[in-house]
Amino acid sequence: MMHYVSMAGDATMGHVQETVDEWRAAHNLPLLPVRMVSDTVYYSTREAIDFLYSYLDDTYCPMVEYHDETMRPCEPGVRELELDRRLESLRGRLAARNRPWWKEHQEQTAGMVECPECQSMLNVEYCGVRKGWHNHCPVCHADVRPRAVRDQFDRWNAEYLQLREERDRLRDRRKHPLCRLILLSTQDGVASNRIICG
Ligand SMILES: [Zn+2]
Questions:
Q1: What distance in angstroms lies between residue 114's CA and the mean position of ligand 1's atoms?
Q2: Residue 16 sits in the same domain as residue 49
Q3: More confident residue, 177 or 155
Q4: Average pLDDT of every residue of the chain
Q5: How far is the CA of 136 from the centre of ligand 1 (A)?
Q6: What is the total count of domains within the chain?
Q7: Average pLDDT for residues 43-61, to the nearest whole number?
Q8: Does 109 share its domain with 155?
Q9: Residues of the domain holding 101
Q10: Are residues 34 and 97 in the same domain?
């Protein structure tokens, strides 16, 4: 029977060593130092066990980091909740991106809009209607919305992508908490496993 102990990813080395010493003393085994034996963070308990099993050594207790899929996900933290709120707000603002701008802002025109590229004069009555035009010039296909409006949407979109990446990273991390697995005893070398939690 192989024995392992699983500990939180932020446990101090002192606490890890103490836990391992206590267990080995209780089982009448000589005390051994704990040593991190891999830079790799393993993606599951199975992978961590397989690596430690291949790493048998009787002069120290090998340890690796891994993502424990059996642990309950943590609750989202303050930052993740704040990111969710900001993403929702940005989604609301970006939803207006494809609406016909000049149809909704006719009052800012004298009934006509000039294409910034080809200088065609476009009748706003045909903006956003069937067989009319939307946000692009029907002659040269340039975007006819005010430059500042397009830039604003681009900034919101860039901000959205950046915040979403951060949010996804935080979410992945708490769904599969980072842990450490330490091989406590190789005893008779039988490949059946027992994991205790430190
Ligand atoms: Zn044009």
A1: 8
A2: yes
A3: 155
A4: 91
A5: 8
A6: 2
A7: 87
A8: yes
A9: 78-173
A10: no
